[in-house]
Write a structure and sequence with these properties.
The chain is mainly beta and 287 residues long. The chain is 7% helix and 37% strand. The longest helix is centred in the last third of the chain and has 12 residues, at 250-261. 49% of the residues are buried.
Amino acid sequence: MRKVIFFFSVLLCVRGYAVMIAGTDGTAHTTAPVADQGWSYVGQISSKPSSVTYIDNNWFITAYHIKQLDTPTGVSLGGNSYSINSLSWTRMLNPDSSGADLVMFRVNETVTGLDAQTLVASSVSLGTPLTMIGNGLNRGEEYDDGIGNHNTIDGYYYGSGASKRWGSNTVDAVTSEFDDVGYGSTYGFRTDFDNIEGEGHAVTYDSGGGVYVQNGETYDLAGIMIAAESGSDANGTYAAFKSDTIIADISVYSDQISTTAAIPEPTAISLIGLAGAVILFIRRLRA
């Protein structure tokens, strides 16, 4: 029997790292894809850089747990630094009015050089190709589960490093609502991690990174990474192949996102109380 513990960890913030990718030495994809595919819209929290995604009109979106745990005050995007308007935090709500693990904020300065983000009109379907962009931990040593032949690659340990990175994947499952991992149930979809060169998997600190789908000659924002499945043993935390990434479905929250991004100067905090209990094996990982 395979004796490992898997858990879903919220993807918190540390100095800017990258989406884990399979194949070669794992150091590729640190510059924009040929079609950009949302690369220019994904930035970092300045103090403890987790991922954030620009929407429009100086508004960004990220995971709600980043706001709750780290109280960010600034953002870095495209080589520019911006300060967060502390009165602008606005949590996204589920159809039943409960709070999701998504939150928006506005920066005080003007974000230049980017058009409004295009949001998907409907939920992605199974098998849809995706581009995942974030600042999570770099890839470490190969992981061997000890069951197959010696030196069999069964995944990778979380490593260290410092670079923004993108990876490819496809939609593996779509759900009407995910279990609450302590920061609100969230509607979304999943990808799983295969041993295919360039395939991406979210790791610690990728929360808030954008996930994009092609729409003709352009790419629309389809989701925001909020959590990932991982394992742990005596050698550290690892992402085994077939582990899932949880991605919030932007289409469910698109009306709220568009309405919020239209607000020029927010004057009040629009957060609701934390909903739901923390489930077993959820832990906050810090480097």
